[in-house]
Amino acid sequence: MSKKIIFLFLSLMFLVQAVCSASVPTVRDFRYSILKASADENYLHMEIKLDSVNQKYNLQVNPDNNKQLLLTIFNTRLKNDNLKQIDLDGTIAQQISFQQKGNDIQAVISLPYNAGLADYKSHLLSQERHLSGSALTIDVKKMPNKPNNMSLSAVAGHTIVLDPGHGGSDSGAVGPDGIMEKTITLAVAQKVYNILVSNGAAVVMTRTTDKDVYAPNDSAAEELQARVNVAEFLKNTDIFISIHANSFTNPTANGTETFYYGPSYQGQQLASFVQSEMIQANGLTDRGTSEANFYVLKHTSMPSILIELAFISNYNEESLLNSDTFQTLMAQAICRGINKYFQAE
Prior knowledge:
alpha/beta, six-stranded mixed sheet
């Protein structure tokens, strides 16, 4: 092979590599500001500048550290080394640090408090406002740490199993802004747990972290049976509640609904009480209660229901589901419904 051909070949290889490298989306810049949420309340507003549109990402509480929010921006590269660690205001959030994780960027937002007190939401601004790309915005506000003051006298002494849907290798449905169902269900279940326990109930959760109940990448039957087993292996489990977020191909689908296993009159009653309380609390479309043969309903021997909090596939309801305020509202409503069920026994 002549030197000229070798030179042309190498030049072509360098050109291909340059084109491929240029086609990979990058994070170009980061900035933040403190804005007013009300006269006496501030929130932290962050903007991450991207040179791509329709960027896929996920924002959640770090399952390994409850004082961190974990942001993953998929298939992206860091363009500016100065973005690796940035100090923030110190009160709402301490710092944000970026690092390359394989083909993705992972950003850790460190908080000086438990992330359960953080009301956070994210949004990808369209190309219309950022002609050279887009901007991922993240707003974080610290919620007041109010003690639980709900009085639910009827739940005391009862054994309740809470099942946060999905988890681990199974994200569940994913909303238009990248919010994962498994994150929402765990957050709401943890709030329900805290309220019920503080009122004297014995509560067990099928999972307490972002993990599979049976094993990573297990079959659907194995995973669902493992959740059923948690309730069945306990002595005298009174009720089983599985918490989910709904999803549909039509992004306008909306509302809250609750399912029960047809032959169970007690399951129907539990579903009715919980559904009524949730609708009164959230004001969303009432999709009612319905019979269903879902595995966890059909294979549990105690009264069981499956809650669909709202539609994560609906942009507005995804934003609600990702709000700590809405999660608390729904958790309280679920607990009131449970309390009414035991009062009616």
